[in-house]
Amino acid sequence: MEGREPSTRPSRTTPASPRVNPALVKRPRFQTLARFWEGQDVLARWTDGLLYLGIIKKVDSAQETCLVRFEDNSQFSVLWKDIFPPAVPGKEQLCCVCNSQACTPDNKLVHCGKCKHAYHQECHVPSVPCDTDSAGSSWMCRQCVFAVATKRGGALKKGPFARSMLQMKLSLPYQLKSLEWDPLHLTNKQQCYCYCGGPGE
Question: Annotated Gene Ontology MF terms (predicted)?
Fold first, then answer.
């Protein structure tokens, strides 16, 4: 067509394309170059939705996975989204979702009373009430609530942890529409399943 300017949109590339411009690759918001390294102690979410202590043996940036050795000497590949570095006392805390420490009056960093990880109130799912990080208040993050309330044979039915878990189940920790499913709709690329968002089986 005459009179039209050529399109300035970048050409599409596939993961196998040898000419991928790293500046054009959209990275997950939680990824940083130094987030994971070999020998790092981490908490890794397993197929039961619980977190287990392990040590990173190998980092695969292309697949966004780490080979993790667990306390029983088993080794498995775990997606970055299911790996959480343990909180280090005395170290400046970053939100473990967005990896930032920037705060506003309506979106402060709150700390889990169990794992000591920091979350922005709006980054945690569900969002954290404003009065949570005040003195005398003990708040637990989604991962810790599931770890405490989930038992072999089923979850707790009564008590404060059971109530917290029921509240957490009202919102999914991922967007259903953003999941990329296989043709039979059995597995998804992000490995997010059920209300816990864990990798499933």
Answer: chromatin binding; DNA binding; zinc ion binding
